[in-house]
Amino acid sequence: MVAALLVAALSVAGCAKDTGGGGGSGSSAAGCQRNPAPAGPAAVAEPPEVPPDLNASNLKVGLSYDVGGRGDASFNDAAAAGLDRAKSRLGVTDIKELTAAVGESEDASATRLRQLVDGGYSPVIAVGFKYEPAVVKVAPAAPNTKFGLVDSTAEGVPNVTPLLFAEEQGSFLVGVAAALKTKTCHVGFVGGVETPLIQKFEAGFKQGAKAVAPNIKIDTKYISPAGDLSGFNDPAKGGEAAKGQLDSGADVIYAAAGASGSGAFRAIKAASTPQSPKWGIGVDSDQYQDKNLADVRDIILTSMLKRVDVAVYSYIGAVATNRLDNLPKVFDLKVDGVGYATSGGNVDDIKPQLDAYKSQIIGGAITVSPKP
């Protein structure tokens, strides 16, 4: 009996030493059994080529942001980064930026696009799936204007180029990170609006986490239903959603919620202690680097990079060279269209595992479903 008790005590002590980081085969955090990272050759992403000496100063570029606009520390800021790169590298100087209002009508969206068309801007880049009806209405009446449409398509309209992403692939990688870092074997997903697009983030995150830890618990909460875009711009509700998951035991939360994600991060920051750290995972941009989130950057584990900046910059370059056919149909891991951030060094210890999964996805050994 004494021997049995000693063995049990040693077992408990061994579990107590496990930090939940690293996450090698058989490691345990609150009962998490983690699979080893897959083996295979390394694969490298190759972004679309834009000639380094390209001069696009003759272009007038119009860009219409989604709700939150430049400064949302997320999706719109990624688009703004691509526009800024076109300024610095391609010489684009004539730019007009407009922003959607919360709860605006489709007519208001169409009016904003017409304003850019009437101002002689081409290309006109519409940022977000909410613009699809407006683009379908405006683009056919302006056949000489080129339109880029982020996150959606405009079937049958020849002067519209869809800029689509494999969000599920990047989300898979941050799901892997969450499963390797959790101490409670319990993580969460906070979505802004329950649409098929945001469900791609949820789907990839869950698949990545389950690939590492099949028995992990994953909470899901959407801030607003489909059709109500306020979920992308409500930090208070983002905080409430995150707090509910923290209270139920989650210690890593992925917020794919636009500007609402800042509220989730602040709830995580309030709940985190040195003895019981909590982590947030950002989305779209490298949110650790965002100056508006400087007060919470210490709890940002990583961010799923949706490279809207790569798509916007590549699209402007393709318009300037009249080679729209060179653009990828989907901006995925192969073309550096999605990925994960390393700022802050919080995933340095698990980078080999993350890159192993990344290589498997690029090489086709792992297929990530876009549906939860």
TrEMBL record:
Belongs to the BMP lipoprotein family. It comes from Pseudonocardia eucalypti. Residues 64-368 form the ABC transporter substrate-binding protein PnrA-like domain. It comes from the Bacteria. It is found in: Cell membrane. This is BMP family ABC transporter substrate-binding protein. Keywords: Cell membrane, Lipoprotein, Membrane, Signal. It holds the Pfam family Bmp. Its main location: membrane. The lineage of its organism: Bacteria, Bacillati, Actinomycetota, Actinomycetes, Pseudonocardiales. Residues 23-51 are annotated as: Disordered. It is a lipid-anchor. The keyword Manganese does not apply. Residues 27-47 have a biased composition (Low complexity).
